[in-house]
Q: What sequence folds into this?
């Protein structure tokens, strides 16, 4: 269970348990690191089998957010929250408003957003009680759907990988095996198609395949288990994590792995195996950070051009990580961690700890009412 030894090990600053029996609220907020700014990360609702499972999830996810924000050049720390409950049965206005009041008590040290099983409607209730929330509707000054920006960032990552492998940024003439025709996959397919790449797609959801075909008629569809065997240049996982694993890695015929899914490598060692096989891996938590970049500017006033400009930086940062990987002779996934950690360390040295005052960059905003 929770112990200081455990928090010390991964460097978590703070873990807070919120309980409100009146609405059956059981929430855990983990603030991993606030050196760069307030901790930003979504709230996930899940019927965890045990509290231990919920704690493991929130600790792991919050640490991941620190790295993602740091490597992306954002002035944000890493945090995440989980609500223990069944999203089908346990959601209520009272639960989310109670949760929002607890968040307000953190005085901006943690800013939340949507995550698995938490939708815009739930976030609206949270927003009634605290301004320390993003991913709210455009009508309330929010940034709307993050998926187009996530897809654009993944496309920039693909361009960087193409530059490194082929000496030409454009994926024109390349074949991309796209796993997942969901929100991000659909936009990514459009970017690829417009750039002159051929897209081969799979999805377990026939409706999403149809939607993609309407948007990009030239796509070729393959079965969900055939995607790893596609004769392609780029494998783009945009469905679920851990698809680069012991069972799939020898089937991949690509030169590049670059997609939106989180935690694409089943284990860290798969990064090294990809390297040995001569397959370039574009670090997932950087190239899928477009959505995070997009919400991060809600506090200063969101605009499409501002968001796009930030997302475009993913191209240069990806190249920088490839260079670190070469210079230090380490796999790309490790090189991304090196860049994230060195940024946190250098800013820690000039800045000290984030003090819980939103300051000029994050002036906070009023609640919805
Ligand atoms: P989504 O749920 O809209 O789409 C995922 C798609 O994958 C769905 O169409 C689903 O049917 C399909 N799928 C599920 N299992 C599959 C399988 N075994 N084989 C093939 N297809 C399968 O999700 P999304 O928003 O498009 O996100 C895609 C991935 O990117 C997710 O892993 C998500 O965590 C990650 N991500 C998304 C964002 C974002 O802004 N949406 C940001 C960062 C990371």
A:
């Amino acid at each position: 269970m929770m112990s200081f030894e455990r928090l010390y090990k991964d460097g978590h600053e703070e873990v807070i348990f919120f309980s409100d029996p009146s609405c059956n609220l059981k929430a855990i907020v983990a603030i991993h690191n606030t050196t760069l700014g307030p901790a930003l990360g979504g709230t996930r609702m899940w019927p965890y089998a045990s509290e231990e499972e919920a704690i493991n999830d929130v600790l792991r996810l919050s640490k991941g957010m620190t790295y993602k924000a740091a490597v992306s050049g954002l002035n944000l720390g890493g945090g995440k929250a989980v609500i223990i409950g069944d999203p089908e049965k346990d959601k209520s206005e009272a639960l989310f408003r109670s949760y929002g009041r607890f968040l307000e008590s953190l005085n901006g040290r943690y800013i939340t957003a949507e995550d698995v099983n938490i939708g815009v409607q739930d976030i609206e209730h949270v927003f009634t009680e605290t301004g320390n929330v993003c991913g709210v509707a455009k009508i309330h000054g929010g940034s709307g759907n993050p998926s187009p920006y996530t897809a654009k960032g993944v496309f920039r990552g693909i361009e960087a990988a193409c530059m490194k492998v082929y000496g030409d940024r454009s994926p024109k003439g390349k074949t991309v095996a796209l796993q997942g025709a969901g929100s991000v996959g659909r936009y990514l397919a459009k970017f690829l198609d417009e750039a002159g790449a051929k897209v081969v797609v799979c999805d377990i959801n026939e409706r999403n395949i149809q939607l993609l075909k309407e948007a990009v008629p030239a796509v070729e569809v393959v079965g969900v288990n055939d995607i790893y065997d596609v004769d392609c240049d780029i494998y783009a996982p945009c469905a679920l994590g851990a698809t680069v694993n012991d069972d799939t890695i020898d089937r991949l015929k690509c030169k590049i792995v670059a997609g939106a899914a989180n935690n694409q490598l089943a284990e860290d060692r798969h990064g090294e195996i990809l390297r040995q096989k001569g397959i370039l891996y574009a670090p997932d938590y950087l190239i899928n950070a477009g959505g995070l970049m997009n919400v991060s500017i809600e506090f200063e006033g969101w605009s499409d051009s501002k968001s796009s400009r930030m997302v475009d930086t993913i191209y240069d940062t990806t190249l920088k990580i490839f260079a670190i990987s070469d210079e230090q002779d380490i796999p790309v996934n490790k090189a991304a961690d090196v860049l994230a950690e060195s940024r946190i360390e250098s800013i820690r040295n000039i800045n000290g700890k984030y003090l819980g005052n939103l300051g000029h960059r994050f002036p906070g905003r009023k609640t919805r009412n």
Observations:
- The chain has a mean pLDDT of 94.
- The domain at 4-133 is CATH 3.40.50.10860 (Rossmann fold).
- Residues 146-147, 150, 179-185, 202-205, 208, 224, 238-240, 260-262, 288, 291 surround nicotinamide-adenine-dinucleotide (CB under 6 Å).
- The chain has two domains: 4-133, 147-337.
